[in-house]
Amino acid sequence: MTDTITRRNMMELGAGATLALTTGSVLHAQTGGQASVGYAVVGLGKLSLGQILPALQRTKNAHLAALVSGHPDKAKKVAAQYGLPETAIYNYENFDSIAKNPAIQVVYIVLPNSMHADFTIRSFKAGKHVLCEKPMAVTLEECERMIAAGKAANRQLMIAYRCQYEPVNVTAMQLMRKGTVGTPRLVNAVMGKQTDLSDPSDAWRLDMKMSGGGALADMGIYGINATRYLLNEEPVEVRGWARTDKNDPRFKTVEDMIAWQMRFPSGAIGDGSSCFSQPGTMAWQVVGSERRLVADPGCFYGGNSVRIVGGRNDPQPQVAEIDHFGNEMDWFGDVVRGRAPNVSPGEEGLQDMRIMHAIMQSVANGGQTVKLDTAYRRTYDPATVVGVRTSA
Amino acid sequence: MTDTITRRNMMELGAGATLALTTGSVLHAQTGGQASVGYAVVGLGKLSLGQILPALQRTKNAHLAALVSGHPDKAKKVAAQYGLPETAIYNYENFDSIAKNPAIQVVYIVLPNSMHADFTIRSFKAGKHVLCEKPMAVTLEECERMIAAGKAANRQLMIAYRCQYEPVNVTAMQLMRKGTVGTPRLVNAVMGKQTDLSDPSDAWRLDMKMSGGGALADMGIYGINATRYLLNEEPVEVRGWARTDKNDPRFKTVEDMIAWQMRFPSGAIGDGSSCFSQPGTMAWQVVGSERRLVADPGCFYGGNSVRIVGGRNDPQPQVAEIDHFGNEMDWFGDVVRGRAPNVSPGEEGLQDMRIMHAIMQSVANGGQTVKLDTAYRRTYDPATVVGVRTSA
Lengths: 392, 392
Prior knowledge:
The structure is a homodimer.
Chain A: H1 16-31, E1 37-42, H2 46-55, E2 62-68, H3 72-81, E3 89-90, E4 106-109, H4 116-125, E5 129-132, H5 140-153, E6 157-159, H6 167-177, E7 184-194, H7 200-203, H8 208-211, H9 215-231, E8 237-243, E9 257-263, E10 269-275, E11 277-288, E12 292-295, E13 307-309, H10 324-336, H11 346-364, E14 370-371, H12 382-385
Parallel strand pairs in A: 1-2, 1-4, 2-3, 4-5, 5-6, 7-10
Antiparallel strand pairs in A: 7-11, 8-9, 8-14, 9-10, 11-12, 12-13
Helix pairs in contact in A: 4-5, 5-11, 6-9, 9-11
């Protein structure tokens, strides 16, 4: 096992994303199952039940090792369903005893945002690595404490930006780096979904104390993050306008819709919107001097595509479907074993939080422009490292 | 002939846009060719040569009666090509003598924007009706003088917003009025093209004195206009950010890219961008609480479509191609004969000018929000009247 990261581009492997991503799995399979990383999944909401736990049945470098839930009955039922012994069930009180369970290497935090910091820091104290859902937390200060705790424990913290590990978006980033669109002018993102107060997985998102924000924090973050990874630069100014019907019982504490604009040092502009009262939409497009890239949908769990528009008979990218969550967990399994780079560490999550907070600050001040510190730089460009893992 | 405008909806005719639009032509054909309206086309640039003159060969209610050009050789050649006698050629100096030519009922002004006001007012003085290309003029004051001159002469002034007479956009408006998207949340428009200084039809667009604005005035206007006719309301606040590379020889006096945001009384937001250094793009989408409407392309001369996204097996609109320019000229032929409403009179052109000037003002003031007078209301909603003309 080596920790050298070869920067061989996924495209150079000659058969696109799927082959490249499969390559890692094949390499791993050759090393034997014991190298697979044990995951404790914290929180048994819709995302865990519908996506993460099923995906962990198909992963090669990751497997389900424990469940953490505040609902004992639900936890027992799910554990039985996935063949876990009851000893692998934890609750929020005895969570810290995971320190004594060597079968757990990674804690995947799938909790309301307000609980991210606490459980991340407790996980690090227990000696575990952390994969944490987006948005990273509720406050910037929490993000900073999470990063510091990971460093103090010498453990990895990865924010679950699945699109940074997902072939359609990675292919788009690669097209951007190759200059396919020419000079990038604008990235537009339209992100939204329909929320339902009676759905427990929505209810906490509609509670400012638990979510830290409405549509922007939950869905807009995909657009903000995509704009950054497509342009491969960081905004220097942002502003936003919001629109919320306060008579709608869903929007007593969080915003419904925010539209944002961002300015980048290259001169490119990012604009977009996020809304909690529209059908599920995760669309983005890049407008360049020569071509556009259009992805609609671009960030769904599946069925995404990216189209090149405006050129002359450009071959269209052909990207095979993968399991986004399984791939991400396999990837982080490799990260903690030193076989792959952590493309979306805590600092990446903090950067989106900074931008979103600046947009919310702008909204609170009637849309005034808010300047941003430009110091952050991504450690790894997903376009150049994703799909490449070192051999065992 | 009657001047009653029946508000029978195009859709109610049972076979969509094409049939409805054809109906007018059929009705006219029954009245005999002498009722066809004679057009003087002023300006023989790319738009006239490539679109307008060929379209006038296929119109039923309109025919080419004269050419007005500053280039006598070109005018002679074009006149010969279209079978016009040399007596039907005018230049900018003797233009006013069209008053003595009863074969001309309409003047179609296809000149640089800075010449619109002058030629419109001269046309009215000559007793003619005016179809004027967009944007309406360079200044708001010019627009007001154009409107006043039309009223004084008791002649029609129509701004050539072909998309307000074009089935894909009219169908989209009708879907909006029917509530197909639910509550409208946001309209996003991406409008742009690649400009070339060495192309005479671009050169004047890149000269602030002749154009009155860059990408916003030339291409963004489609997005502004579409946002308004899709939402069927008027913005109360706007703002913009621009980005122009002043080292690019094309952009010495006009802007390259402007991104705008508009707020509407309903709470809907309009955002979009316009750019003079990107491939031809005329895309818009409406985000509603239930569905989206996506048109990409939405405002090209042909090949447009509108898609309903986010519903469950909604039947997709099927809209047949028509000749946009021919249809528009036929329509105005009916307007001047009292058989169809003037859906896009001077006031409609002035309203877009007001909005664009407010956006430019915002850009000049670092993106500050500019409030707009909300008094303007469209006289006719294209969604309810287009496609319906009275019988002869």
